[in-house]
């Protein structure tokens, strides 16, 4: 773990004197927030991702589409450390995060939600929220033992509780705070998933079919939240099967097919791409 943490320092040490903070800052802004290069993931004999490369521009809602089994969820898993890629690299905010662990990647500001929500059903909504953030002070053993540090832990927990309430309010599920997560509807679970992911204070969120099982009015609300968050500066990569959602809400679309990137470009261009139409018709048989 310490090896990983010293990496950025080592990079900084080799930076030349030309790199003023200002210049570095503006370069960071221009850089894609996420870059995936030649990603390969094999499961035994199955090649789920077969050399996929793409970039996501900062501040966009980018769609990741493709027929069932194209490799979308596996790509998310490889980006966020759920699976280790067999080959290739993932660079987030200029930092190579390939093969890092999920919580380390979350600390860098990149989080995801799962195709099937992963809340803990036997805990309340609020308790689920309180479990979300990574690297809280309370997790560090010495702080729980030292008296002064303990006060810090308590203060941090209060702040976290407040943020949890604010986030639940933002998603309009604060009235469910004391209900067991297991009693929520499918749509409410999706909102809780997003609320939990947001609580880690990310810069970018990968959403894996966030609208699946969500009723139309909740879907509309969820999309409004995504746009509101985009306006605040968040970046989204969205896996979604509903083409209307993709076409109406994503400025850029990446199409995967059989583990590879088949096409990418502005939504309108993708819509009329013959190869994309073919891949979808083929996939639906
Ligand atoms: N853990 C695993 N072990 C073995 N094979 C896997 C594993 N995860 C995914 N696969 C396989 O990898 C391929 C890509 O699956 P993936 O779930 O990434 O597709 P997807 O594009 O997300 O599909 P969907 O739209 O149905 O969610 C499939 O053939 C799938 O069976
Ligand atoms: Mg999937």
Automatic annotation (TrEMBL):
Keyword list, A-Z: Amino-acid transport, ATP-binding, Nucleotide-binding, Transport
Keyword Ligase attributed: no
Cellular component GO terms held in the UniProt record: plasma membrane
PROSITE patterns recorded: ABC_TRANSPORTER_1, ABC_TRANSPORTER_2
SMART domains hit by this protein: AAA
Annotated stretches, region: Disordered: 1-29
Residue ranges of the TM segments: none
SUPFAM superfamilies listed in its UniProt record: P-loop containing nucleoside triphosphate hydrolases
Domain of life: Archaea
GO molecular function list: ATP binding; ATP hydrolysis activity
Annotated ranges, domain ABC transporter: 34-283
GO biological process, one term: amino acid transport
Ranges annotated as biased composition (Low complexity): 9-24
UniProt keyword Nucleus, yes or no: no
Pfam hit, one: BCA_ABC_TP_C
InterPro entries tied to this protein: AAA+_ATPase, ABC_AA/LPS_Transport, ABC_transporter-like_ATP-bd, ABC_transporter-like_CS, BCA_ABC_TP_C, P-loop_NTPase
Purpose of the protein: Probable component of a branched-chain amino-acid transport system.
Family membership noted in the UniProt record: Belongs to the ABC transporter superfamily.
UniProt-recorded name of the protein: Probable branched-chain amino acid transport ATP-binding protein LivG
Taxonomic lineage of the native organism: Archaea, Methanobacteriati, Methanobacteriota, Stenosarchaea group, Halobacteria
């Amino acid at each position: 773990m310490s090896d990983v943490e010293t990496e950025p320092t080592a990079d900084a040490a080799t930076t030349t004197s030309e790199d003023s903070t200002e210049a570095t800052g503006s370069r960071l802004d221009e850089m894609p927030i996420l870059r995936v290069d030649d990603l390969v993931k094999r499961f035994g004999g199955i090649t789920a991702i077969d050399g996929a490369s793409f970039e996501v521009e900062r501040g966009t809602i980018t769609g990741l589409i493709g027929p069932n089994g194209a490799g979308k969820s596996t790509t998310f898993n490889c980006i966020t450390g759920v699976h280790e890629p067999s080959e290739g690299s993932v660079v987030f905010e200029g930092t190579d995060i390939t093969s890092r662990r999920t919580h380390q990647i979350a600390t860098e500001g990149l989080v995801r939600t799962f195709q099937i929500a992963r809340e803990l059903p036997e805990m309340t909504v609020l308790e689920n929220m309180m479990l979300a953030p990574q690297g809280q002070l309370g997790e560090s053993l010495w702080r729980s033992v030292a008296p002064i540090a303990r006060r810090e832990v308590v203060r941090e927990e209060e702040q976290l509780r407040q943020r949890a309430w604010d986030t639940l309010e933002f998603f309009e599920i604060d009235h469910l705070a004391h209900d067991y997560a297991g009693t929520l509807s499918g749509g409410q679970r999706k909102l809780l998933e997003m609320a939990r992911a947001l609580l880690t204070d990310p810069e970018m969120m990968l959403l894996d079919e966030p609208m699946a099982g969500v009723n139309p009015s909740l879907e509309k609300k969820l999309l409004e939240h995504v746009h509101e968050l985009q306006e605040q500066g968040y970046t989204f990569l969205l896996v979604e099967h509903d083409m209307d959602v993709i076409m109406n809400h994503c400025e850029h679309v990446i199409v995967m097919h059989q583990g590879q990137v088949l096409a990418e470009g502005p939504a309108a261009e993708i819509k009329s791409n013959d190869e994309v139409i073919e891949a979808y018709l083929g996939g639906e048989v």
